[in-house]
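Ticket #260: bound-state structure for GLP.
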Amino acid sequence: MELIIQSDAQAVSVIAARYISHLLREKPNAVLGFVAGQTPIPLYKELVRKFREGHIDFSRVTAFSLDEFVGLSPDHPASYRSFMFKHLFEHINIPQKNIHIPDGMATDIPEHCRQYEDAIQKAGGIDLQILGIGVEGHIGFNEPTSSLSSPMRTKTLTPRTRRDFAPQFGGEERVPRYVVTLGLGNVLAARKCMLLAFGKRKANAIARTVEGPVTSMMPASVLQMHPVVKVFLDAPAASLLQNTSYYDWVFEGKPEWQKY
Ligand code: GLP
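RESOLUTION: The complex was predicted; output attached.
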C-alpha cells in the first residue's frame, strides 16, 4: 500500500486525478471502476476540469460502477446511477455504450450479477478500481463479515449504514434495506485500486484498514492483500495512523519516474 496524505481533500484529489490521467495516457482504453458517495466528488470535479481543458480523454474508456440500491428506480435522485451521471458521466466524453451500472431493479439479481461480472471479463478486467470507505470499513456495499473473496451479489445494509443514508432518502425507514455490490473478490481482481477517505469520521476505519489485521470485520483491510493500492487521504482521515511520518517520507522521496 502506498499512502498519499495531503492537508485537505482538494489537494489530494488533484493528485488522484493526475494518477488517473497518467493511467489513461498509458492506456487510453482503460477499464475504470467508479464509486459513488461524497468522497469522490472533488476527484470527479477535477477529472471534469481536466477534460474541459483538453488534458484527459475518456472516449475509449469503459466504466463499471461499483454498487447500487435494490428496488430503487434508476432515476431516483439518490440512486448511484443518478449520482454517477450528475457528477461525472454527463460532463465527459465517455460513450454511453461503455457505461455499466448495476441495475437495482433487475428481476433476477443473481443472473444480473453474473452478466455484470461477464461484462467486466469481456472488457478485459478492471484496470483501476476507485473506492471510498464507510465508517465501519465497508468498500462498495461489502458490510462487515463479507467474505474476503466475495463475488458480486446482494447484501443487506447494516442499521448504521442506513442511518448514514437517511438524509438522502428523507428518513432512515425510506433507505433501501438491500443493495447490489461488486464483491471483495472483484475488488481484489482489479489490476490497481485507489482508496479515498476524507475527514475525521473515517480516521478509525482508515487506521484499521491500513495498520490493523486483515479481517472481514473491517472489509477494506482486504486491500492489504492487493498488490497495487494507493490510499489518498486528507490529514483528518490520516490522523489515527501510527506511521504517517514514514508514509510522508516515502511520498516525498519518490524517484522521478514514479511521481504523479
Ligand atoms: C457507501 C458506498 C461506498 C462509499 C461509502 C462512503 O456505502 N456504497 O461505495 O464509498 O458509502 O461514502 P461517502 O463517500 O459518502 O462517505
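RESOLUTION NOTES: The first strand starts at residue 2 and ends at 6.
TICKET STATUS: resolved
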